[in-house]
Design brief:
The protein is α/β, with parallel strands linked by helices. It has helices at residues 18-27, 38-55, 69-80, 92-103, 146-155, 203-212, 224-231, 242-258, 260-280, 306-315, 342-352, and strands at residues 5-7, 61-66, 85-89, 109-112, 130-134, 136-137, 142-143, 160-164, 181-185, 197-202, 285-286, 298-302, 318-322, 331-335. Helix 1 (18-27) crosses helix 8, helix 2 crosses helix 8 (242-258) and helix 9 packs parallel to helix 11 (342-352).
Length: 356
């Protein structure tokens, strides 16, 4: 086992029970069983039920498994958007969803603020059928507030709302009644390697997709009605990543056993001491100026000493994240996921004062 601890915002540190569950999966032949077998149908059902409980999904929301969160952008665009979507953009990943839409030749629009900035206008064009929002912008450490989501739902009750919950789920509470579809990948807060995406869609999404299918192509085997048809039997249209679906279910159960409230309270505590460390350090400053919009799961600091800081911690076996994209050289990003203990976060805060 490596003696390194990864605080990178994805891929990140493996969940502390991951190795145990991996060994059990191999012992029980999970990667080799038929994806149509009763054994795997049971795995699918248990994983789905654990996620529903963990994420506190209301009735009428279904869970499907994809290759990645990026694929969810394609699936949402193909299944749910006829002509136009509108995107609230304040970082690289919210911008990529918009870029995907335009690559699909949609007449999509955007409300854009500087990376990490907050929105002052909620105007959405009438032609937009779907609104894209990023709950936790991993690139810059900005969180879209629950009251902001509720406000969008109140203003535009007839438009679909798609929420990126990558690096947010399951650490941050989300009221899914304000959201029609959401998606995440497992290599962040769930502490797994990359290679599995999760797509959540409610009844309204299915109705839109069925209506769209009358005149348009929804893609092929992962069209939403097809996912629904197989999903109702706890199956997938294709041979899925059975090993990762199993592991995700086991980790979801572990977090449930830990206690969702405790996990989220711990997340808040760890974020508070990290943000206090940034506030008190002479070489660091907060990138997101609005305190209430600072991410609890991806703490981002701007600094002119990013290289020195990253190398200092790397020598001690603590791997922090560098900045993303244009901010690569002047940001550090510190992941705060359920697998990161309070003691390890406290150690980062103590060591930061020793950076030369």
């Amino acid at each position: 086992m490596s003696n390194k601890i990864y605080f990178t915002p994805g891929p990140s540190q493996l969940f502390y029970t991951f190795e145990e569950h991996l060994k059990k999966a191999i012992f029980n032949d999970i990667p080799s069983i038929s994806h149509r077998s009763s054994a795997f149908i049971k795995v699918m059902q248990e994983t789905t039920e654990a996620l529903v409980e963990l994420l506190e999904l209301p009735e009428g929301y279904d869970i499907y498994f994809l290759n990645s969160a990026n694929e969810a952008w394609d699936r949402i665009i193909q299944n749910l958007i006829q002509s136009s979507s509108h995107h609230f953009i304040n970082g690289a990943f919210s911008k990529k969803f918009y870029d995907f839409a335009t690559q699909h030749a949609k007449e999509s629009t955007l409300s854009e603020v500087a990376d990490g900035g907050t929105f002052s206008s909620w105007e959405v064009p009438e032609k937009a059928e779907l609104i894209g929002v990023t709950k936790n912008e991993t690139s810059v450490g900005h969180t879209f507030l629950e009251e902001e989501l509720e406000n969008l739902r109140h203003i535009y009750p007839d438009k679909l709302i798609a929420l990126d919950i990558v690096s947010a789920a399951p650490s941050l509470p989300i009221n899914f009644k304000n959201v029609d579809t959401a998606y995440f990948s497992v290599q962040k807060a769930f502490g797994m390697p990359s290679g599995l995406g999760v797509w959540i869609a409610n009844k309204r999404c299915h109705e839109v997709a069925i209506k769209r299918a009358e005149n348009s192509s929804l893609g092929s085997y992962r069209a939403l009605p097809n996912l629904k048809r197989f999903g109702s039997k706890h199956q997938t249209p294709e041979t899925p990543n059975m090993l990762f679906i199993y592991l995700l279910g086991q980790i979801a159960k572990d977090i449930l056993q830990m206690g969702v409230k405790k996990m989220r309270n711990d997340t808040t505590y760890k974020a508070a001491i990290l943000n206090q460390m940034v506030s008190n350090h002479s070489q660091l400053d907060h990138f997101v100026t609005s305190k209430e919009h600072r991410s609890k799961t991806t703490v981002v600091a701007k600094t002119e000493k990013s290289g020195e800081i990253l190398r200092f911690f790397q020598k001690k076996g603590l791997i922090l994240g560098d900045g993303y994209g244009v901010n690569k050289e002047n940001h550090i990003r510190i992941a705060n996921f359920p697998t990161h203990s309070k003691e390890s976060i406290e150690m980062i805060c103590d060591l930061m004062d020793k950076v030369e």
